[in-house]
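Working notes for the structural subgroup meeting. M.R. asked for a predicted model of this chain before we commit to crystallization trials. I am recording the input and output together here so anyone reviewing the notebook later can reproduce the run.

Input as submitted:
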Amino acid sequence: MKVHICAVGRLRAGPEQTLIDDYLTRFDRSGRGLGLGPAKITEVEAKKGGGQQAEAELLRKSIPKGAVICGLDERGRSTTSPEFSKLLAKWRDTGSQDVAFVVGGADGIAPELRSDADHLVSFGKMVWPHMLARVMLCEQLYRAASILGGAPYHRE
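Returned structure, recorded in C-alpha cell form:
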C-alpha cells in the first residue's frame, strides 16, 4: 500500500526536512517487506487570499483516486501508536492500494474535505504547527512499520 502525504506549504531545508527524510527512509526500508510504502510527499502551494477552500481544491488533486483519506485534524481521534499501526494494517489488508494523509495549512483542513475523509487523526488536544505535524506523522509511520514488523523501536 502506497502512502501519500498531501500537505499544504513548501518545507524548506532545515531540521524538519532532515527529520522527515530520515523517518521516511526508515519507513520505506522497514515497510517494504510488510506491504507498506513507499511514502511520497506532495506539497501544494497555499494561495494568498484563497483560504481553506483553495487549499482543499489543490489537496483533492494530489490525492490518488480511490485512496483511503486520513486527515490530520485536532477534532480527529487520538490513538496510541499500536492502534495506529493496526489501522494501517487494516487498510492494507482490506486491499487499499493507497492511503493519503492530508495535512492542511495554518487554518487546518476545509470542512468539506474533512467530512470526506475516511478517518481523522489527532496528535492530541494541542494544536501543532503543520510542519511539525508532518514530522510527527512520518515518525508514527516508521513506528507503525516497526510495530508490525516486530522490531524493538517501539517499547510499551
